[in-house]
Write a structure and sequence with these properties.
The structure holds two protein chains of two kinds. By secondary structure, chain A is mainly alpha-helical. Chain A has two domains: about 110 residues, Up-down Bundle (Four Helix Bundle (Hemerythrin (Met), subunit A)); about 70 residues, no CATH class. In chain A, about 75% of the residues lie in helices and about 0% in strands. The termini of chain A are far apart. By secondary structure, chain B is mostly helical. Chain B has one domain. Helix content of chain B is about 75%, strand content about 5%. Chain B has a two-stranded antiparallel ribbon. In chain B, helix 1 runs antiparallel to helix 2 and helix 2 packs antiparallel against helix 3. In chain B, about 40% of the residues are buried. Classes of the chains: A mainly alpha, B mainly alpha. At the A-B interface, helix 2, helix 3 and helix 4 of A face helix 1, helix 2 and helix 3 of B. Chain A: InterPro entries: CPA3_Na-H_Antiporter_A (IPR050616), MrpA_C/MbhD (IPR025383), MrpA_C/MbhE (IPR046806). Chain A: It is found in: Cell membrane. Chain A: It is a multi-pass membrane protein.
Chain lengths: ~200, ~100
């Protein structure tokens, strides 16, 4: 099976373009608005709440771009865990009442952020299109085909992605698990608890 | 041919109508955002984010039906659960400071 065949077999049905752009455009407006409000809101609790709304919009956007796994992570981590952790931090510290609702914009900082945005935007032209047979992953057909053909014989894991995560780069995953474990311990220390309950 | 591909009127399919409705709900989300930003009280913001979450669940369900992607419903379910959790956490925070969990 050649790379082009694999791409064709795995391609998703292309949605109707006109409606797609309408949803995309309104989601972009929503996400950008929430991001700006989160950055500029003077009241921390308001910023936390609007940040929750931001992650709702991001998850909808990820889902729309057919990345449901990323959307689930965004939903669970950003909307759920992060909001709770930020609220816990607020509860442990103080919240000052402000008279003005929004911070004034720091122009040099906004300019630097704008430059970074433009710089990142310029790199997007180099990203291969979805299903492009000339993309780096497909131009090295020997490597990708080796993983597809030999994964089960080498590791005994049926899912190739899972095999890469748990076997081929097992130590890397182990390091990630250590980081997550350390973060869990740190949360328990901050909460002054001994178990998650 | 699945149900969403059936033509309703003037060549537009059920899928088209679902996508258009989803776009309408996204536009409504911007309106809900106004309440979340403006406040004035924290209860307004909590309610606004709660409605936003329910709105997101509806949008995801519509997209899942229109694009024939049943897995979108899983994400919608996660959101329905987390939305409730967020509303309870923020409400508890505003009522009894310090008690989030």
């Amino acid at each position: 099976m050649s790379g082009v065949d694999l791409v064709a077999a795995g391609s998703v049905p292309q949605p109707v373009i006109a409606q797609v752009t309408a949803i995309e455009a309104s989601l972009f407006v929503f996400v950008v608005l929430t991001a700006i409000v989160t950055a500029l809101a003077r009241d921390v609790l308001a910023a936390v709440i609007v940040f929750g709304a931001y992650s709702l919009g991001m998850a909808a956007l990820y889902t729309f771009y057919r990345a449901p796994d990323v959307a689930m992570t965004e939903a669970a981590i950003s909307a759920g865990v992060t909001t709770i952790l930020l609220l816990l931090t607020l509860a442990k510290t103080t919240r000052i009442d402000h008279e003005v609702a929004f911070e004034s914009v720091n122009l040099p900082a906004a300019g630097a952020a704008g430059l970074l945005f433009v710089g990142l935007l310029l790199t997007t032209a180099e990203i291969p299109a979805v299903g492009d047979p000339d993309a780096p992953a497909w131009s090295n057909v020997d490597v990708t085909q080796w993983y597809i053909a030999e994964t089960y014989a080498e590791t005994g894991v049926e899912n190739a992605v899972m095999a890469v995560l748990a076997a081929f780069r097992g130590f890397d995953t182990f390091g990630e698990a250590v980081v997550v474990f350390a973060a869990g311990i740190a949360v328990l220390v901050v909460l002054r608890r001994e178990v998650f309950a | 041919m699945s149900f969403v591909e059936t033509t309703v009127v003037a060549g537009y399919t059920v899928s088209d109508f679902l996508l258009a409705a989803a776009a309408g709900f996204v536009v409504l989300a911007v309106g809900m955002l106004y309440r979340a930003v403006k406040g004035p009280t924290m209860q307004d913001r909590v309610l606004a984010v709660n409605v936003l979450g329910t709105n997101t669940v509806v949008i995801l369900a519509m997209l899942g039906a229109a694009l024939s992607e049943p897995t979108f419903l899983d994400i919608a379910l996660i959101y329905a659960l987390l939305n409730f959790l967020m509303a309870v956490a923020i409400s508890k925070f505003t009522v009894e400071r310090g008690g989030v969990l």
